[in-house]
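Researcher: Let's run the pair from yesterday's discussion. Sequence first, then tokens, for each.
Model: Starting with the first of the pair.
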Amino acid sequence: MTGTSIDGIDTAAVRISGRGLIARATLLGQASAQLGDLTARLRAAQRQEPLTAGAFTALARDLALAHLPPLRELANVHGKPDLIVLHGQTLFHKPPLSLQLIDASIVAQDFGCQIVSNLRAADLAAGGQGAPITPLSDWMMFRSKASCRAVVNLGGFSNATILPAEPRATGNLVFNSADKRAFWIDDIRGFDLCLCNQLLDHISRTMANIPFDMDGRLALSGRVNPSALEPVHTLLDQQRRSGRSLGTTDEIVAQASAHLSGLSPSDALATAAQAIAQTVSQAIAETIPANQRTSRVFVLFAGGGVRNVGLMSAMRRAIKSSSSWKGSVRTTDEYGVPSDARETTAMALLGILAADGVSITLPAVTGRQAIRAIDGAFLLVP
């Protein structure tokens, strides 16, 4: 897949054991590739700059071709894949309209295996937001019998999955394993939050003249400015309270960064990181089931933002200072899934669910109705 930053392609080789919701994933290896001149072309399309039909078709084909080298690299080491899941590049997302660009037939022809792509389409057709799509795969990877867990992705946008602890039978109420699993899935919550790396990268480019804040060093060296923090946090909190899946029309970077324009680059980054952290912490606090707020909640972070020590330091401060819940900061690495492979591993699990005829999205998360078409995603058989 490629993320909202459009700075490269991430791929993973994943071994799946089991079927459907009881499938388990084992990460075998990862490979990545740069996008080269595709980055500028994709960003222009994402900005809704006009393209001819021919140029747009060529963009979809060229993006697929760029996926082949890292996929071949994995296949050379781990063997020919049985199935490939292609997320594609999100060029537009404003439900019910959404576009994840890629020509999946190019990859199908090269590898001769089944392809799952266009993962959001069925959910959108059934009245859903089409996002977030990872909560069910988060449940498959990170669920716990003993504790509530929140899985937070720090990408261009941040999003979160809330996984309550496994419900326990009380009194005469007894669950068999199938019923317990269905009930437990119904309790999963997931939502998009707010700008994250898109805002931090914008500040880095416009105020520090660097592509991004390497490892969050500038943010870590800066000081939070209280007077600028309040309006930035208000903007981000309004964004997460909108209750919508966020996309290409939700990039309020100019508005947010305007409140930081009088600060030094390091102070601006530190303040933005704190605003993001407070928004994330408050969202988790408001979504944790009431009966689990007295126990420690484990917050598992993933995504490119995990490498930003300034952002992660802000997350720890915000979660530690919360009076309404007790949180413990972790990364998905501590639970067997590298933070930079959580999304690619999730794609593998979603692809398996789609191939097994299991819906990949949850009505309580996306707001969709029953899906009457082919469930979950489009399966391309070469």
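Model: Moving on to the second of the pair.
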Amino acid sequence: MKRSVSLLIGLMVLVSGTLGQNLVPNPSFENNNGIPDSENQFDLVDDWFNPTERTPDYFHLQSPGRGIYSANPLDSGWGAQAPRSGEAYIVLHYYVPDPPTQFEFVSVVLTDTLVPLREYRVRVYASLAETSSGSCDDHGFLFSEGPIYLTSAEMAQLEPTFTNPPFVDDRDAWTPIEFTWIADRPHTVLTIGNFSYGTGSLRLNPGGARQVTYFLDDVSVEATGKFIGFEPEISYSCDQASVRLQSYNVKSAREWDWTVNDDLPLTGPAPELTLTEEGIYEVTLRTVELGQEYLITQSFEVRFPEKPTAQFSLDESLPVDTRSLLPIVNESSPGTHFFWDWGNGEASEGEQPQYRYPNPGYYTVTLAMEDEWGCRDAFSQEIFVACSERLLANAFTPNGDGQNDVFPFDGLRACEEVLIQIYNRSGQLIYESQDPSRPWSGEDYPTDTYYFMVRYRDGQEQGYLYLQR
């Protein structure tokens, strides 16, 4: 039998009922709307109902009747059997040869809906009636998504969820019929009876069977807390997703057949695959659990993280020179690691580093960044670093004493394309040089105040110097 279930990943499904809670109302048939005084009064039982035209029976210790048509468990036409618990139980004819279609069933609406892929333990206690001339192995249990009302013959031809393999022959004790079952649909109703329609393995006494009759008591349906299914475990790198399809709580499965978007056949309890395209992927697992085949379908989405973008700019309100920290502004998308190459053999790390160029000039700054997924990006930009050096002296004494005899321009050596000009008080150009390494000797000019102009690639500087003989 094949069971198909579709679930969407991300939807949490809660276990139906509390673990160990019986989902069968009135499980031992104690609650009623009246005490039976003869057979065929099943309609007195609360919560349970008769889904066919047949006549199951309700027995109760308080029943006043005695003898063949009574409904007292200790003295009835079907023999004496005390209830397993409480004061009541029900009676089902699983087989009556005349008419051969007399199969009796009982149904109950569960107190909670069964959840697909969850495991449930189902149990009922049966005792073979003393007068039953045969026994059977066809104690059947049918779960359905709603009540089913059919004739006895039509009901008997349905395929039950479970049938009990062993014969139940004990006429003295109560025999538990128990099984665990994984719900395949959101069932709400349990029906109990014989679904063989006379084709089951009936064991008859010599001379033929008059009937096969059972007493039933203490019905239970409980969630075990176990379930079957799988969970896609997704881990991302920059350009691909690694997916592990982890099956869980499959107790005795020996087969795992997977398909992804009707392709990519995989096997094993936890196969792995690598995906390089975004989108919705539908995964179907075919597994066999306790002889039952299940098809479990889930969907999951692969959405790669947004790739980082490296970007920076310079704050135009601040100087870009050798005297100041580089006014760099990191405008990248969020990342976890930032690597700066200053283009002069030096490098730094950090989202917003502080750096000052020791020398002026043109430099190519490169920012390489990486995010938490290992995605990388880089951005480069050429910048010009101006010379910030200035003339430190403002006077000199060219008197031949060996001290301060020349006016030096050493502080301008780091600057590129320098033009040094000196003017006298009358505004005449008396000295000009493009070599900062050559100082001005003052020549034969007299003691006086002179004007100087220094032009750089990125600007100029002017001022006064004093020559003292």
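Researcher: Give me one sentence on the second I can quote.
Model: The helical segments are 152-156.
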